[in-house]
Amino acid sequence: MTHEEYEEAARYWVKKDAEAQKAEPGQLRTYIEDFLAANKTCVLGTGSGNTVRCTPVDYAYHDGAIWVFTEGGRKFSSLEHNANVSVAVFQAGGSMGNLHSLQIQGKAEVVTPWSAEYERAAGQRHIPLDALKKLARPMNLLKIVPEEADYLDSGLKKQGLSSRQHLDF
User: Fold this and answer.
1) What is the pTM of this model?
2) Which residue spans within the chain are E strands per DSSP?
3) Cβ proximity of 111 and 92 under 8 Å
C-alpha cells in the first residue's frame, strides 16, 4: 500500500462516524460502563520503542477506571516509558450482526502498594489484604483511566443507532 492508501484506510471510521446515528453521550457512557461491569477479562495493549505487547488480564471496573492486579511481566518495560495503553473487551464467539466489543484508549498508572487507593481496589475485588501481605512481593496494581472509547454493539441498530459508537471521556 502507498502512504495515501494507508491514510485513507486510517480515516475509514472518521468518515463513517460523521454520518452515524449517535447515542446521547450519557446513555453511551452507561452502555460502556454496563459492558465493562458485565465482563472481567480484557486485553491490555502496551508499547514503547519497537515493542508492542498485548496481555490478557482480569480487571475490575469502578470509580471511572479499569483496575488490574498483576504480578508483573514485560508490559512494565513499556509502561515505564509510555503510560498510553489500549484495552480491548469483547464477547467471544460473536458473528456479523451479533457483535459486542469495546476498545479503550487511556493512561495507566501504577498505584502505590498499601495506599488507600490500593486497599480500596483490593476490597472491590474481594481480595483479602492479609492474603496480599503474605506474598513475597506486593502485587502491582494498574489504574487505567479511559480517555476515549469505541463501542460496538450490533443490538444498537434496533434502536435506530449506528452499531459503532465513539465516546470521549
Assistant:
1) 0.91
2) 41-48, 51-58, 60-62, 65-70, 84-90, 100-111, 140-153, 164-168
3) no
The pLDDT of residue 96 is: 64
Give the separation between CA 107 and CA 159, rounded to whole angstroms: 32
Taking the C-alpha atoms of residue 26 and residue 20, their distance in angstroms, rounded to an integer, is 17
Q: Which three cell numbers stand for residue 125?
A: 475485588
Q: What is the per-residue pLDDT across 62-99, written as a single tens digit (0 to 9) for each?
A: 999 999 999 999 999 999 999 999 999 998 766 566 78
Ranges of residues in the chain whose predicted pLDDT is under 50: none
The three grid cell numbers given for residue 62, joined into one nine-digit string:
469502578
Buried b (16+ CB within 10 A) or exposed e, 112-150: eeeeebbbebbeebeeeeeebeeeeeebbbbbbbbeebb
| Closest of 56, 54, 111, 50 to residue 81, by C-alpha | 50
Look up residue 160 and give its DSSP letter.
T
C-alpha cell at 61: 471496573
Smallest CA-to-CA distance from 82 within 52, 55, 43, 121 is with: 52
Helices H, strands E: what count in the chain?
Answer: 6, 8
Contact 70, 144 (CB under 8 A): no
